[in-house]
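Run PIRT protein through structure prediction, thanks.
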Amino acid sequence: MEIPPRSPDGSEKSPQRRELVTSDTGSTLCVSSRSESVWTSASRSKWDIYHKPIIVVSVGAAIFLFGTVITSLPCFLTENKKAFKMSGPAFLSLGLMLLVCGLVWIPIIRKKQKQRQKSQFFQSLKSFFFNR
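Sure, done. The structure for PIRT protein is below.
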């Protein structure tokens, strides 16, 4: 087992030890956590809750429409048909994928919101009965 190097007077900690002590790993993990804390009860607006899936649906719809236009261009143009025929379906599939992902995301968020409301209700009930 290795003994970490000490400073000449023995008062300073080793650089590795100092780094571990001053690290904010725990607080960083809590802050960067994807789920919200149960103890935060600040109500959020609908836009704060649904802005990510709305953006994904909007971008998906735009890419899907762009893919539709690109796919239909070989019917009207005589040049570069092969490039349009190859890139059009790619944009169609990408747009459809984003559109469906965003549309599925919305009910998932609704379900989570209902579960969170139930959880907060039961926690308030629990605190009411057990904190007497």
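The radius of gyration is 27 Å.
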